[in-house]
Specification:
- The chain is mainly alpha-helical and 162 residues long.
- The protein has helices at 2-6, 15-39, 45-65, 68-76, 78-82, 85-94, 101-111, 113-129, 132-135, 137-152.
- The longest helix is centred in the first third of the chain and has 25 residues, at 15-39.
- The chain is globular and about 55 Å long.
C-alpha cells in the first residue's frame, strides 16, 4: 500500500508520509469493527460479509482505475471494509460443526496463511505487469470469493444420506 501511495500518479508522497497515512486504513478498520458489530444485530452476518466484500471490491477497483487522491484514499478506505471479515468468516465457517469445531477452527486458522501469500503474489504481479494498479485485481478477486462465501453462508446445505 505504501508503494501505491508513493506513486506520482496517486498521492506522490514520501514513504514516511505514506506510512503515516496508513493509520487511516487501521482507523477505518477500528471504526468498521464497531459499526459492523452494531449492524450485525439487524443484518445477517453472511449478508453483511458479502456487502463489505463487495464494498472492498468497489474501493479496490476505484483505486485501480483512477488516480490522485481518489485512488489513494479509496485504497485506504478498504480498512473499513476489512474490519469484520475475519471474525465473521471464522464464526460462519465454524457454525454447525458441533464436535468437529476444534478441527474446523484449526483449518480456518491455517487458511490465515492466505493473508500472507496474497500480498506477496500481488507484489509479484505488480513486478510482472509493471503496474500496481493491475496487481490490485488479485485482491479484488479474493474479495469476490469472500463475497460469495458470505452470500451463500446462510443457505442450508442439502442433507445427504437421510
Amino acid at each position: 500500500m505504501i508503494n501505491f501511495l508513493e506513486q506520482p500518479g496517486v498521492l506522490g508522497v514520501s514513504a514516511e508520509r505514506a506510512g503515516q497515512l496508513l493509520s487511516l486504513y487501521w482507523g477505518g478498520a477500528m471504526v468498521g469493527r464497531f459499526l459492523g458489530s452494531a449492524v450485525m444485530r439487524v443484518v445477517s452476518p453472511g449478508r453483511l460479509l458479502a456487502a463489505v466484500a463487495l464494498g472492498a471490491i468497489l474501493l479496490v477497483l476505484c483505486s485501480s482505475l483512477s488516480s490522485g487522491k481518489v485512488a489513494g484514499y479509496s485504497l485506504l478506505a478498504v480498512g473499513l471494509m476489512n474490519s469484520i471479515m475475519f471474525p465473521t468468516i471464522f464464526a460462519l465457517a465454524c457454525e454447525g460443526l458441533g464436535p468437529r469445531a476444534a478441527d474446523g477452527s484449526g483449518i480456518i486458522n491455517v487458511a490465515i496463511f492466505g493473508g500472507a501469500v496474497v500480498p506477496l503474489l500481488t507484489g509479484a504481479l505488480a513486478d510482472l505487469s509493471g503496474s500496481l494498479s493491475v496487481a490490485l485485481l488479485l485482491p479484488a478477486a479474493c474479495y469476490a470469493a469472500i463475497a460469495a462465501f458470505g452470500w451463500y453462508a446462510r443457505r442450508p446445505l442439502p442433507i445427504r444420506g437421510l
